[in-house]
């Protein structure tokens, strides 16, 4: 996360299940919303090399948001989000929860795109050919969606009725 901040970017992600915190720890800034200080571990974790580990600060303050999913069909009741967006006046709790929900929709759409077009296994061997393979898949997807859109508007049928897939406009 510190690397993200070094790039002048912010992040919103789900808290890893191995991190246990409660609403008692940290500075409460709103309902189900608090600022927490994370400290650097004593030993270098897997996934970081020694130089990256040494470059990390001794601590970082993040915002932790708890919310409950009330939509039937979701397996998780409580979700904990971590973000580097600390300003509660600029970034409300609901806006961050909504942003995470949009991210989830994007992941579902990408998974749908990969499975529908058979992109779950790319067959090319070199990076340049893999890029070309992806571009061909996206071209085919856009052509198909354009045809579905035209058919839907011509016959006043929603694009969702043309396929079981969710409608998404052609990618530019």
What does this molecule look like?
With 172 residues, the chain is α+β, with helices and mostly antiparallel strands. 40% of the residues lie in helices and 17% in strands. It is built from five helices and five strands; from the N terminus they run αβββαββααα. The chain has helices at 2-6, 50-55, 93-117, 127-154, 159-162; strands spanning 12-14, 27-30, 33-39, 59-68, 78-83. Strands 1-5-4-3-2 form a five-stranded antiparallel β-sheet, with helices on one face. The protein is extended. The relative contact order is 0.11. The model has no long low-confidence stretch (mean pLDDT 81).
Large-scale geometry: extended
**Biggest sheet statistics:** 5 strands, antiparallel
β-strand amount: 15-25%
Order of helices and strands: HEEEHEEHHH
Structural class: alpha+beta
Number of E-state strands:
5
Average pLDDT value? 81
Spatial order of the strands in the main sheet? 1-5-4-3-2
Rg calc: 21 Å
In angstroms, what separates the terminal alpha carbons?
31 Å
Tally of individual helices: 5
Helix content: 25-40%
Stretches where pLDDT is under 50 for at least 5 consecutive residues are: none
A few lines on this structure:
The chain is α+β, with helices and mostly antiparallel strands. The chain has helices at residues 2-6, 50-55, 93-117, 127-154, 159-162, and strands at residues 12-14, 27-30, 33-39, 59-68, 78-83.
